[in-house]
Amino acid sequence: MSSTQEPPISVCFVCLGNICRSPSAEAVFASRVQARGLAHRFTIDSAGTSSAHVGERPDPRATRAASGRGYAMQSRAREVRADDFDSFDFILAMDVNNLTDLKRLQTLAKHPRAQISLLRDFDPASPPGAEVPDPYYGGKHGFERVLDLCEAACDGFLEHVLASS
Ligand code: 4NP
Asked: Of 100, 122, 127, 145, which residue is the least packed, with the fewest Cβ within 10 Å?
């Protein structure tokens, strides 16, 4: 089968609120695949383990930091669902709490197939178990740090996916 006929590789980035870290990772990864001419090969989404911000646009501090680097944040927050484990190839958590919550929710999925990992496990420069820290209660430096970490990890993740597809 030629590559144009293969189903897209589906990726969902997950944090707590889906208004800071995971939409940032989504925007970074979408920009990376777009820059490589690979947008048609991916379905990219994000979600939160909490319902607290469902329907909201990303935090303005995240949007501002992302736009400073040329990333567009277009998503609205949604809560991760059990059927996401059936439909996505990869579900990438920002921190260990997100990962723990995802593993619990995965037990409710009917036909789970997603590979669940910490996003930073794909950054070759990060130690195992490294997290993207929650920037919500901090200053704008935290949002720049989120982007730094997402850029490094998304690059590593894209290399991983392309090498194994
Ligand atoms: P996120 O950040 O999980 O990266 O979207 C947060 C957003 C909201 C809250 C905490 C973290 N909150 O407590 O409302």
From this structure: 127
